[in-house]
Automatic annotation (TrEMBL):
An annotated Gene Ontology molecular function: 2 iron, 2 sulfur cluster binding
Keyword Electron transport attributed: no
Identification of the protein by name: (2Fe-2S)-binding protein
Key words, A-Z: 2Fe-2S, Iron, Iron-sulfur, Metal-binding, Oxidoreductase
InterPro entries: 2Fe-2S-bd, 2Fe-2S-bd_dom_sf, 2Fe-2S_ferredoxin-like_sf, 2Fe-2S_ferredoxin-type, 2Fe2S_fd_BS, Beta-grasp_dom_sf, Diverse_Oxidoreductases
PANTHER family on file: BLR6218 PROTEIN (PTHR44379:SF2), OXIDOREDUCTASE WITH IRON-SULFUR SUBUNIT (PTHR44379)
Organism of origin: Flavobacterium restrictum
A Pfam family per the record: Fer2_2
CDD domains named among the record's database cross-references: fer2
Residue intervals of the 2Fe-2S ferredoxin-type domain: 1-76
Domain of life, source organism: Bacteria
């Protein structure tokens, strides 16, 4: 039995310790806001916060996050909420598929650096791919949040 703390709720799951966290979140628990993109840590669509840090859930076995605080896009933190408001104000999403991962990565950035520079933003967001090319709107929304 594996116990996970996700969005402040405890889940006791009868799953293999090696199961990727993404599978547990989406297929076992049914929180489908976190997306599957590549499954190999190359796109960022699957990112969730583990404690306060953006983490590739497709690469993380559930046994590695037992006892840690997991936040998905369905959860809330002060920085995530601020960023979601900016995302709406700047009409960031196009198809929207990658945006949960983008928001989680941006939240992790603001959890680490209060007032990130353009370079900080570019570096932090570089692991998140958007096939619609919303990169400039993402950057503007993050900049607006920290102004
Ligand atoms: Fe995890 Fe692409 S699905 S990085």
């Amino acid at each position: 039995m594996i116990t996970l703390l996700i969005n402040d709720k405890k889940y006791k799951l009868d799953i293999a310790p090696e199961m990727p966290l993404l599978w547990a979140i989406r297929d076992v628990i049914g929180l489908t806001g976190t997306k599957f993109g590549c499954g190999i840590g190359a796109c960022g669509a699957c990112k969730v916060l583990v404690n306060a840090t953006a983490t590739y859930s497709c690469l993380t076995p559930v046994k590695d996050v037992v006892g840690k605080k997991i936040t998905t896009i369905e959860g809330t933190t002060p920085n995530l909420q601020l960023l979601q408001e900016a995302w709406a104000a700047f009409n960031v999403p196009q198809c929207g598929y990658c945006q949960p991962g983008q928001l989680i990565t941006a939240t992790s950035l603001l959890n680490t650096i209060n007032n990130p520079s353009d370079t900080d933003i570019d570096e932090a967001m570089s692991g998140n791919i958007c096939r619609c090319g919303t990169y400039q709107r993402i950057k503007s929304a993050i900049q607006h949040t920290v102004e």
